[in-house]
Amino acid sequence: MEVNPFYAADPANLPFVTVLFLLLAIVFGWAFSRLPKEEWQIAATIPFRRRDTDISLWEGMNITYYGFFVATAQAVAVSIMFVLMGAVHTPLPYVLSVAGITLAICVPGSKVLARIVEKKAHTFTVGGASFLGILFLPLVLLLIQTIREDLASWSMPFLAACAVGYAFGEGIGRLACISFGCCYGKPLAECNPMMRRIFRSASFIFSGKTKKISYESGLEGREVLPIQAITSVIYSFAGLTGVYFFLSGFYATTYVALVLTTQVWRFVSETLRADYRGEGRVSAYQLMSAAACVYAVCVAWLLPYPPIGPGRVSDGLRLLWNPAPILSLQAIWAAIFFLMGRSKVTGSTIFLFVKKNSI
Prior knowledge:
By secondary structure, the protein is mostly helical. It has helices at residues 13-34, 65-87, 92-118, 126-147, 155-180, 193-199, 212-217, 227-247, 251-269, 284-302, 313-320, 323-340, and strands at 42-52, 57-64, 204-205, 223-224, 348-351.
């Protein structure tokens, strides 16, 4: 049974949402001003192949901030999901198994989708990952529900928690796009007068020849629509709202509202971007977003689940503070950083030498 969304079962629910809001405001305020700069693309370079035997000249492997922010965003998303599922007393093995299966499908599957749509070997699509998650998660839950009927109570809360986690994950994950210079907006000069007035003092100006916006579209040094920042704000605000509604017991509504908000904005935001998104006036990712909206409404309508009361965030935080969730989050962060952090499109040369004043 859905309950009044303005009823908070736990006095800690609203402070929890408020703390999340303040943390995001601080991080976004810093990131939007710093990450478009050249020095925030490459975090480190590791020498791995010697080029010259006479001098210490090495070919380097670049480690990107893109990988750091993507890994951090996914860890935050899963953390939020753990807290919300703990708030409704979901068995921990159930949470870990479903989360593991979903990530195992979405992360590699999204790279395959990006290769099919964008015809590029070294790319990753968040849109594809979210579509696969929206598509397969209800099927995984339904399969488990047929095997263990006693777990049926948590099917819709799980969908809602994952929708909230996804909103936070992509909202924070867009910081990776700012750092790498991908998923960029149209030049401000090509936008309509109203958009130019609104974003004149908040536009992005990217610097660095190795930023994607530079080598793909030649827009280095030009004012562009800060579409990544807009997406971060919209998704994160949706996530904050979703947390409060979830903790108030409004699970089906939370799930549908979050999917519709994120996917409708994804559809609209594609019209404001200047990067390549596939052939045709309507991209494959836009079609996926539209299909995901219809699919989510059908799932919320058809998926049976017994009523469950509102959650308590204090119980959710206690579930998170356990070895299994903590180790799982560390493993997720490390795996995604290893997968996404090694740059496949940039290279480097390292010259090693001994400082004369140190001898």
